[in-house]
Each structure stands twice: as C-alpha cells, then as structure tokens.
Amino acid sequence: MMYTLVMDIRINRYLAERGHCSRRQADELILKGVVSVNGAPVKPGAKVSETDTVSVNGKTISSPARLTYILLNKPVGYISTTDRRAEDTVLDLVPRTVRLYPVGRLDVNSSGLLILTNDGALTNRLTHPRYEHEKEYEVQVDKSLTEDALSALRTGVILDRKKTLPAKVKKMRDRSFVIALRQGRNRQIRRMCESLGYTVTALRRTRVLSLTLDNLGAGQWRYLTNEEVMRLRSDAGIV
Prior knowledge:
Layout: E1 9-10, H1 11-17, H2 23-32, E2 35-37, E3 40-41, E4 47-48, E5 54-56, E6 59-60, E7 69-74, E8 101-102, E9 111-117, H3 120-127, E10 135-141, H4 147-155, E11 158-159, E12 162-163, E13 168-173, E14 176-181, H5 188-195, E15 200-208, E16 211-212, E17 221-223, H6 226-235
C-alpha cells in the first residue's frame, strides 16, 4: 500500500511520515540543528512541501519506495530497538529489505504482538499518548489476585503522582488476567502491579486495536494484508 504525502506540512510530521523517526525524535533533531531544508537549518514548526529538499546530518531524506507492514510475535529476550549495534533486536527476526521501526516498545522480558513498519503516520498515531488507542495484554503475577487488586487495576493506580487511565480487566486464573489499556506509560503494567504488591512473571501483548496475533508462534512474523492495513489505519484515525 502506498501513502501520498500532503503538501505544506510541519517538518516533524514530514520526517515521521517518511519513516525517518517519530515526531518527538524529529523535534529533538531540529533543536540540535542537524535538520535543514534546501540547505538551511530549520526551526521547530517550520513547514515544508514535496518540492523541498530535506536533510538530516547532511543526508537527504526521501520517501520509502514502498510502505511495509510486518506483524511479529516478539519472543522474550529480544529488544525493541533500531540500534544496529545492539544484539538480539526485533529487527534480527524480520527481513531487512527496507528500514523498519517497531511501533511502540515491548521490554526485553515481555513478548507478543509488535508491528514493524516504515509508515511514520501510523507509528505516530499508535504511539502518541493523546490518541489513547487500545492495546490488550495477558499478564501473570507471582501470587493470587484479590478482587481489590483487580478493582484497582480497573479504576487506575498512582504512578509518578499521576493516576493511570481506567482499564478493562478480566481475571483468567488465580494468578493471571487480561488487561486492555488506552495509554502506554513506561513499563506501565509492571509498575501498576508492583504498586499493588505483585511482581509480573509473564507479560504478553495480544492485540493492538483490531489486530491480533491469531496463531502466530513466538518469533514468527508475517506481512499484514491490504485489508488489515486499511482497517488499522482507519481505526487509528488516518484517512
């Protein structure tokens, strides 16, 4: 599926939609003075069009020849990073015919659904906190779950002096539950459980919006179908 860039957009969105980095990372690069348009450094908020030449660290940024979407069932032990110097990264598990970026992160001890793509617009929609897109996880803890603990997970707990958003929580077994979140704070589920006196022993993401793992085994991957891409982008609010 090809994506057409609109005219006259902010420079951070330009870089994100061309798969170079996230908008937040683009803003950091701009502040460092390494982003230029037509040979001149730009300021945050500057607008560009397809007729402009945009460079980062002297390298011209071009649109990817093709947008690629991969669904990976990340195993425990792999890192969600694009750092080519790191070992055992999620990029080691998929083809490297084009440069891809993991959409959001699963820590090294977590597993499950991870999207890898060069679609910057989709990445921004699925990772920016303001969009509150739902993601579902299966969680195991170190001791029996009480109704008080489940209720607290549903209504929210205080992390860094701020209460987490309400979540959908369903107890599965004595020490396991499913939780659907609309936010993605750093190590959120693990920290929520820790605040209630539990230690997470296993954490697996099973769904992002309408996209699920189905029967994909650990370490396995596949390309998304055109129908899945269209629905995912639609669900994410991308026309």
